[in-house]
Design goal:
The protein is of the alpha+beta class. The protein folds into two domains: 5-79, Arc Repressor Mutant, subunit A (Orthogonal Bundle); 126-257, Endonuclease Chain A (Endonuclease, Chain A, 2-Layer Sandwich), CATH 3.30.870.10. Helix content is 56%, strand content 19%. The protein contains eleven helices and ten strands. The strands form two sheets. The protein has a seven-stranded mixed β-sheet, with helices on both faces. It has a three-stranded antiparallel β-sheet with strand order 1-3-2. The N and C termini lie far apart (72 Å). The mean pLDDT is 87.
Length: 259
Amino acid sequence: MIIKPELVNQIKEYFGLNIYETKVWLALLGKGVASAGEIAEISRVPRSRTYDVLESLEKQGFALMKLGKPVKYIAVKPKIIIEKLKTNAQKDAEEKVKTLLKLKDTKEYSELEDLYTVGIQPVRHEDISGSIKGRLTIYNHLKEVLENAKKEVIICTSAAEIQAKSRFFSSLFDRLKKADISMKIALSGDEKDIKKINNKFKIKAKAITIDAKFFVADNEQVLFIISKGAMPDEEIAVWLNTPFFTTALAFLFDQATRE
């Protein structure tokens, strides 16, 4: 049985195994039940290492030791492995979230905030800008910008984007309404879709023909999404903290949406 190097590399990354563990597991899957010697021959992993690797795979749940002698190992079905890894990943994520939630109440977090405040104060507004890559990162930053607005936000995007990120915008609109923040919203796309969105979210978005995505908070900060049709990980946005430019953009927005 020949194990392709491409498969070894892919499985190694997917399942978080080292190179020897991957080769031994693939060999065991192909054999079903095998001794360490047989696995060493198929996988081309040194026999002296195969015993340790099989024990490691057994501890991780990728293999079972068969009762009886000589000692042999049984491959665990991939579907079972995936379900186990999913469960472990969910548990790890939940624990991580709990840790992060507790972090805000610690002395160390307060010190981090103090360091940021001290560091950011002497910086000019026009120097506080940057590019953001990846849809998840972009929307996390967007949430921070808009939810920290004190008076007004401007949202210019597409009806399709609102529908695709329905949960995100639903939560955002609710928070802004509760905080009594003025919302100016303009959407491109089918007017029927825009009407449905207005009814669903209880907003008053205006229809526009311009295909653009930008968000403004308090005429101070603006976030542009500049990559159209990109894959989620390749989407790019530019964030600027510049009242001079943002005020002008807000004025142009008002002119473009004036009835």
